[in-house]
Records
---
Amino acid sequence: MPSFDVVGVGLNATDTLILLSRFPAYGGKAPFEREVLSPGGQVASAMATCAKLGMRAKYIGTLGDDERGRVQLDSLRASGINLDDIEIRANCANQSAYILVDHSTGERTVLWHRDECLRIDPASLTPEKITCARLLHIDGHDTPAVSRAAETARRHQIPVTVAVDTIYPGFDRVLPNVDYLIASSEFPGRWTHEPDPYRALAMIQNEYGMRVAAMTLGADGALARVDGQYIYSPGFVVDCIDTTGAGDVFHGAFCYAVIESMPVREALEFSNAMAALNCTALGARGHIAGVQEARDFALSGGRRSNPRFEQRP
Ligand SMILES: Nc1ncnc2c1ncn2[C@@H]1O[C@H](COP(=O)(O)OP(=O)(O)OP(=O)(O)O)[C@@H](O)[C@H]1O
Ligand SMILES: [Mg+2]
């Protein structure tokens, strides 16, 4: 019996959210309302989501030994995630992000920096660090490390979910060991040079053979290809304060859905609901709902269906 439901290997970051009443023009000048320091980062926030959903979650990654590293560590500790295998790097700044949040829409623009001193060493990811869990969740940034983790998981028949936002060199070595791809809206087109998202998802899935190839679509929800069929799940309508971390919460919720053996349509709906609820408050982990709140909202919440995705097969 594995000790954990899910282990996540990848990024954390400490965000400075900068609240703007309007987005500045290039070369322009704009006042900001306030700034807020807040924990985030792809895999760390996904694991915080899993923990909130009642799963036994473990996070493996690196932290700087500065104030931002401490803010992140305090938040991870408070969320009840197992941190036995994180590494705190000496004389190293934690990954940081400056996130411009446009108050009129809640949309965020991210400027981020990660020092080389934070790189995860693939050799540190010994098999027992992966086989202690029922599911592995990764991102793409430290590609050799997540590649090794995914290889180990595949060898032990542990399902792998991956969150990928951009092109990483060497990511083609990760994809063959992925079971559930959850890409950002830009990734499929950029990876395949195919602008049609349906064809792009099919190309990736046909080449690498993952069970589910999916992409998130911001306020429009998510699109997935499974068993040769497409499933479009519209987004939920909320009073959107800040979209920061919406993707990360979606990924964490999707991990929960896989472990709970939800059918893919239900998994997308649940993950959309969790992500939308997180947009109702400021910060990457602004409002991570519990299972009951998300399920209730998934039943009662209004949907925003984009006809572009409704009309395809
Ligand atoms: N404005 C919004 N209103 C409701 N739901 C949203 C909104 N924006 C995003 N979401 C939800 O969050 C999910 C992920 O959003 P999106 O595709 O924008 O990810 P992302 O911007 O790549 O993620 P991140 O901000 O974490 O880097 C969507 O599939 C949707 O369910
Ligand atoms: Mg977004």
Note: The chain is about 35% helix and 25% strand.
---
Amino acid sequence: MVPPAATASTSLQGSPQAPASLGSPSAPAVKDPAKDTILTPRFYTTDFEAMAAMDLRPNEAELEAICEEFRKDYNRHHFVRNEEFEGAADKLDPQTRKVFVEFLEQSCTSEFSGFLLYKELSRRIKEKNPLLAECFAHMARDEARHAGFLNKSMADFGLQLDLGFLTANKAYTYFKPKFIFYATYLSEKIGYWRYIAIYRHLQKHPESKIFPIFNFFENWCQDENRHGDFFDALMKAQPDTVRGFTARLWCRFFLLAVFATMYVRDVARKEFYEALGLDAREYDKEVIIKTNETSARVFPVVLDVENPRFWVRLERLVRNNEALNAVEAADGPAPIKALRKLPFWGANALEMAKLFLMAPIRSEAFQPSVR
Ligand SMILES: [Fe+2]
Ligand SMILES: [Fe+2]
């Protein structure tokens, strides 16, 4: 469940009578949600009837085994704040503080987005598909914990996300179940690789551990790994989602969309990675290569991320994105700005098309041992 602290402070927003201490850890201010762009985390909804009617028999034993793992709730006692958090926020310089809070906000929003989707799914399919509903309920439990833990860290900086407001006001993207599978599978697996890469790096460089939340990443990422395994098993229970020509095209599309979005976003926020002693590009490269390799366990094709042209094109997206941000930041009427953005949007569309058309790699060739 979402901790009540995460939703209780709506009335303080913009209040002229707000106490002087508002914005302190004891009375965190409600942060306005970041503006929605193509790069911000999305909220999803789907066809609940189709989900409820899903036949799990082709892979029921594996799904049952995964559900049994979820029941064990390995991280039941993991997300407990300790004395290390006391005063930790005060040690950050203003620039690091700013980029770190952005990281917390974005992570909290995407964890919370997972919670909402899984919770709603478990509620809506409970009667007709109890095994699937139970798996979703366990995953919603994990994501609520993750989001709540991140939101508590935001409170250390005197800010808090109003998750109730987000639930009611954020736009929901509708995806057919199979698209939910591709998107959430990738976001769980990429989440695993992102968290574990940071954790391992900080183990080697403890002097770069700017906040105690990173101590929690090792067990945390195991939750994401299990969630990803669940979607892997679910796609194998619905083999048409990962078989045939259309499935191959969609898998390529989702891999590319997820990788390109992450790369452009992380390079634009490279200061956060610098604060941890990481190079955003190198970090993303590692995460993308690992996620691509993992995806070959279930997707019929993966991307040729070893091809240097793949990275050259991602860099062009980065530059176009920088140009778009510069236009946005400049003064001028909206229609003129849109006109000035047009060539960069066009260039982005062209690069994405070229990336999409790059020859993929058949997964049998990539992961022969598990296929
Ligand atoms: Fe999570
Ligand atoms: Fe997850």
Note: The two ends are 37 Å apart (CA to CA).
